[in-house]
């Protein structure tokens, strides 16, 4: 019984790492940029949810919606104002810039009196609730993490595989120049990718907060999630792996890449 509880606890913690890693992969594949600010975006999402619940007295679900939407807009704004002007510079420049974004985010939160220097409890309705099934006791917080992560993965899989926006993002990730020449708005998609990654980070923060509390340094968990996207950053759909460098050299893969760009351009033109 204890073993099963430990397994569920480990899976829930792995889901948080997976959501953060998903943000890394989305940004890297969409913009060819490595963002070290993903953990701090998660922290900002948790504080945004906390502010909506405690300061604005929003109900839980409205606070979650506002926090995720606000972080999505914030991610879009970061790409538009901070990242886009330095595109074309060496990759190290952008990496250092994303590290600076993380420092600025933590510093800005820490400067807020009675907020940034304290540890807070996110008042979610399922906090400290337990579910007993077959003699095994599960924490609702952990089950919520697993359930929301699974649902989010399904939604993103369907979006990338079947929607116009998702196919266009895949085309841009394969070859941005070819996608641009085919009429796909690559610059706009880059902003949407950053917004999507920030929204996913906010969801991860809101799921993690009931377990580890809300504090300015909770974004450091993003460093632990860094090795996960490094396993295979060469994916077309974030949920589709490749078999390695050999698959990239085969004609079938090249045909698939060109086919995606062409299909995405036609769908965007409709």
Keywords:
270 residues, two-stranded antiparallel ribbon, mainly alpha, disordered C terminus, globular
What does this 3D model show about the protein?
With 270 residues, this protein is an all-alpha fold. It has one domain (2-269). The protein has 12 helices and 2 strands, in the order ααααββαααααααα. It has helices at 2-31, 38-54, 60-83, 91-110, 140-162, 164-174, 176-181, 186-212, 221-225, 227-230, 245-249, 251-269, and strands spanning 130-133, 136-139. Strands 1-2 form a two-stranded antiparallel sheet. β1 and β2 (136-139) form a beta hairpin. α1 runs antiparallel to α8 and α5 (140-162) crosses α6 (164-174). The longest helix is centred in the first third of the chain and has 30 residues, at 2-31. It is globular, with a radius of gyration of 19 Å. The N and C termini lie far apart (55 Å). The model is unreliable at 231-236 and 241-269 (pLDDT under 50).
Mass-distribution shape: globular
Average the pLDDT over all residues and give the rounded result.
81
The helix/strand class is mainly alpha
Contiguous uncertain segments of 5+ residues: 231-236, 241-269
Give me the Rg, rounded: 19 Å
Task: Count helical runs.
Answer: 12
Q: Biggest sheet: strands, sense, closure?
A: 2 strands, antiparallel
* Quaternary structure: single chain
The end-to-end span amounts to 55 Å
User: What's the domain count?
Assistant: 1
Strand portion, in percent? under 5%
């Amino acid at each position: 019984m204890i073993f099963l509880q430990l397994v569920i606890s480990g899976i829930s913690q792995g889901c948080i790492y997976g959501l953060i890693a998903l943000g890394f992969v989305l940004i890297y594949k969409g913009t060819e940029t490595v963002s070290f600010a993903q953990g701090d975006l998660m922290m900002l999402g948790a504080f945004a949810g906390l502010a909506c619940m405690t300061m604005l007295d929003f109900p839980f679900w409205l606070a979650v919606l506002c926090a995720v939407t606000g972080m999505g807009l914030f991610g879009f704004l970061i790409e538009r104002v901070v990242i886009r002007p330095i595109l074309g510079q060496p990759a190290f420049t952008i990496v250092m810039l994303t590290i600076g974004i993380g420092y600025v985010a933590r510093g800005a939160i820490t400067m807020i009196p009675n907020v940034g220097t304290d540890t807070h409890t996110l008042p979610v309705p399922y906090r400290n609730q337990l579910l007993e099934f077959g003699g095994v006791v599960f924490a609702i917080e952990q089950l919520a993490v697993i359930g929301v992560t699974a649902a989010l993965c399904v939604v993103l899989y369907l979006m990338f595989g079947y929607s116009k926006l998702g196919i266009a993002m895949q085309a841009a990730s394969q070859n941005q120049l070819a996608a641009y020449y085919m009429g796909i708005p690559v610059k706009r998609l880059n902003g949407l990718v950053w917004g999507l990654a920030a929204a996913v980070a906010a969801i991860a923060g809101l799921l993690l907060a009931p377990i580890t509390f809300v504090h300015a340094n909770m974004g450091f968990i993003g460093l632990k999630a860094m090795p996960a996207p490094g396993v295979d950053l060469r994916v077309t759909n974030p949920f589709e792996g490749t078999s390695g460098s050999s698959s990239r050299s085969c004609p079938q893969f090249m045909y698939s890449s060109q086919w995606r760009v062409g299909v995405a351009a036609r769908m965007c033109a409709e």
